[in-house]
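dumping this here so i dont lose it again. seq + smiles for pyridoxal-5'-phosphate
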Amino acid sequence: MTKINHNTPLSTSHLQQRSLEAVWHPCTQMKQHEAFPLIPVVSGKGVWLHDADGNRYLDAISSWWVNLFGHSNPHINAAIRDQLDKIEHVMLAGFTHEPVVALSERLQKITPGTLGHCFYASDGASAIEIALKMSFHYWLLCGQPQKNHFISLQNDYHGETLGALSVTDVAIFKQTYAPLLRQCAHVPTPDWRYAEPGESAQDYAIRAAAALEQYVAENHSQIAGFILEPLVQGATGMGMYHPIYLQRAREICNRYQIHLIADEIAVGFGRTGTLFACNQADIAPDFLCLAKGLNGGYLPLSVVMTTDTVFQAFYDDKIAHAFLHSHSHTGNALACRAALATLDIFEQDQVIDANKIKAAYLNKIAVPLTTHPKIINFRNCGMIWAFEVKTDDPDFSAKCFQAGLKQRLLLRPLDTTIYFMPPYIINEQEMDLLISGTLQILDTL
Ligand SMILES: *Cc1c(COP(=O)(O)O)cnc(C)c1O
């Protein structure tokens, strides 16, 4: 049996103990919980998470980047309650329902380009699997079965199922499972932290695009698609890059006849300052993968949107030409209603404009961080901020997380990168707490 910290009240420690005995927590070395207690959350409101002991924590990373409009948002709650009394879920083969149709129509209108059909799944990684399979299958239907390789960006993250992990390039998640994965070439990242001294972010992005073109020119006959995280490479530590790379990537994919697959699972729905990251380069992908913020972080829901050209290739009398892929909860009605409520908030509250004002305020009060002697590479893109802490401590991330909890902040650094990705409803007073708490943490580490 695992020993736990008994300085906490009985009900809390009881729940921690039960969780450690019954739940296998994600992305966690369970043994570390001998030293670090789990936080039992009993409720949430806005940016705040409340634990069983009456403490509250500012959710500065939107509960793994999913939450947009706060926990227990009244508008989204009401939509789910209303839907619950109608139909919670029905299989989407042979059946349809208003929420999934309305959501698909609205997504068509707001996404870049003309992405005519929406294919739904539950998690981001499943959306990636769908995009990869569809892209390959499209080329197969076009008589080009040899186009069955994918390329992605160095340092990209696309999820942790085997197909998604194959196109991911983050060693800590990938290395162990390498024997199970398909080979995938990773082209140089445009992340400006890799620029030469004196080289601008834009020049570096152009140089990375030239490397992409060289690889594609030599290998395009075997390549089905190029998958990338537009503008911000999240899991690798919020690497940011210039939108010109996306423009060049779009041109190169057109020139050499390969699909451009945009993984906007993390960056979609306003995270980078525009509704979609692709908007900043004024490009449209052939496949767009969305999840996380799609329904404000409420319920598992992901979607792959694609062009009419792709859709039409599958449209045939032969069943074998169809995309015979499914997940049990495809198009879940509750999750779609939550997504519709989320899109309502975007429209009614003019969220993209409101976020610009919030981002400007946070940048203003973050000056002591930008000039802090322990910090390098302070950067911001829309509603994402990140910086590296100069430290040799291999346990920095875990220690910083614990120090954050003492300041009532939920921060979960990626290696030595501290980042903020708060719910959009964060107010100025809460931003003040975020910055002052982070400065305190830096003093203690
Ligand atoms: C989180 C994430 C995924 C995977 O989504 P899950 O819902 O966790 O499976 C894929 N791509 C990107 C860019 C992500 O941030």
